[in-house]
Design a protein that fits this description.
Number of helices: 16
CATH superfamily of the largest domain: Glycogen Phosphorylase B
Largest sheet: 7 strands, parallel
Order of helices and strands: EHEHEHEHEHEEHEHEHHEHEHEHEHHHH
Oligomer: single chain
Structural class: alpha/beta
Number of strands: 13
Shape: globular
CATH class of the largest domain: Alpha Beta
Number of domains: 2
Helix content: 40-55%
Length: about 400
């Protein structure tokens, strides 16, 4: 019988897409391998692995998260509603551990790969109770709380950056990079034109691609929409593709409808709630505006795209700020914090204007970013997993 491997993690596309990249790499090496995805019950992104050709079976267990805040917002933990949610989710974790233990008994995998996300905790503990080894993976410079909780019993820790930057035992820590879909590749001028043809953007136009992560970001949507409304008037050949995040498309569309009343100008602003083929749009763009989520950054570095990065300042442990700080130190992206944008609301627009008017600076940013790319990360992780079977 072919070995079975459980892949777990979820809560956002930033967790699920790397899992699917690893799944594809595993199947390339051993097509007979049985890959089973275990996600969180009720996850809004559960449809993605369920429809992936490399995943053989999908299961869901209960999971809970600890709601934490960065940058002085710990006081919000005293909020009654937040406390109630944390207490409720504590029981969800207990239920999830029991469900995971039963699931491991039933499917008997040879190994579990944990990408992080709060569903990883009950799944990894259930595996530990069944004496099933597991490997964790961290994309950010700051390890996720989920992976820190299950770290003591992990066989290996795959990490995105230098192994010495992580609080794991050196002999169990392996630098692999961040696994991304093989559709992300260095973008040549011919490939950029091909992508534009596929998405209906004129080859000689200027294009801005905006994405706030798979869940979207209302903060990013608001600050960027204000700039786009002015830029679309200023640049007669500018096209904008804005990924709003699931559930945000209608509200963002209404914002643009109000701020851009000229019908012809409004037609050059395209809004999506979520897209599977991000590589097409980012590859076609002259400039990308994004959060500092590790997966998107890894994808855009492989493409060598010029990026303006707007890190979230309130996510737990400040991992996006740390990611952005690393990029800034390498001269690989323009970094604008929430504090900077609050002090000067026009700062983002000035940066976009400057880069669109000076393509040589866009190209330089893209080249610097490409130097950080690790395109073989999924293969390295697959090799690590297969070495344990």
């Amino acid at each position: 019988m072919s070995p079975k491997v459980v892949l777990t993690g979820g809560g956002s596309g930033g967790h699920i897409m790397p899992i699917l990249s690893v799944a594809a790499a595993l199947k390339r090496r051993d097509p007979k391998l049985q890959l089973i995805y275990v996600g969180k019950k009720g996850d809004s992104f559960a449809d993605i692995p369920a429809h992936d050709s490399h995943i053989d079976k999908v299961f869901a267990v209960r999971a809970g998260k600890l709601r934490r805040f960065h940058n002085g917002r710990m006081k919000q933990l005293l909020d009654i509603a937040t406390m109630a949610q944390n207490i409720r989710d504590g029981f969800y974790v207990i239920i999830g551990v029991y469900q995971s233990w039963r699931l491991m008994t039933r499917i008997k995998p040879a190994l579990v790969f944990s990408r992080g996300g709060f569903v990883s905790v009950p799944v990894a503990i259930g595996a530990k109770l069944q004496h099933i080894p597991y490997i964790t993976h961290d994309s950010d410079l700051i390890p996720s709380l989920a992976n820190r909780l299950i770290a003591p019993w992990a066989r290996y820790h795959a990490v995105a950056f230098d192994a010495g930057d992580y609080p794991y035992p050196p002999d169990k820590t392996v630098t692999t990079g961040i696994p991304v879909n093989t559709n992300f590749k260095p973008v040549t001028e011919n490939l950029r034109k091909k992508y534009r043809q596929q998405i209906g953007i004129p080859p000689q136009a200027k294009m801005l691609f905006i994405i706030g992560g798979s869940l979207g970001s209302q903060d990013v949507n608001a600050v960027v929409a204000d700039s786009v409304a002015q830029l679309i008037n200023e640049f007669h050949d500018l096209y904008v593709v804005h990924v709003a995040g699931r559930g945000n498309e209608m509200a963002l569309g209404a914002t643009y409808d109000t701020s851009v009343t000229d019908r012809h100008l409004r037609q050059r602003i395209m809004i999506h709630d979520y897209i599977n083929d991000v590589y097409l749009y980012s590859g076609a763009a002259d400039l990308v505006i994004c959060r500092a989520g590790a997966t998107n950054l890894a994808e855009f570095s492989i493409q060598g795209k010029a990026c303006i990065v707007l890190p979230s300042s309130f996510l737990a442990a400040g991992h996006q700020l740390k990611n952005a700080e690393y990029l800034k130190g390498k001269g690989a992206a323009i970094i604008l914090t929430a504090e900077e944008l609050t002090k000067d609301s026009k700062r983002l627009m000035r940066h976009i204007e400057h880069l669109l008017q000076h393509p040589e600076e866009c190209n330089k940013l893209g080249r610097n970013f490409a130097c950080l790319a690790q395109p073989d990360a999924a293969d390295q992780i697959a090799q690590l997993i297969l070495g344990q079977l």
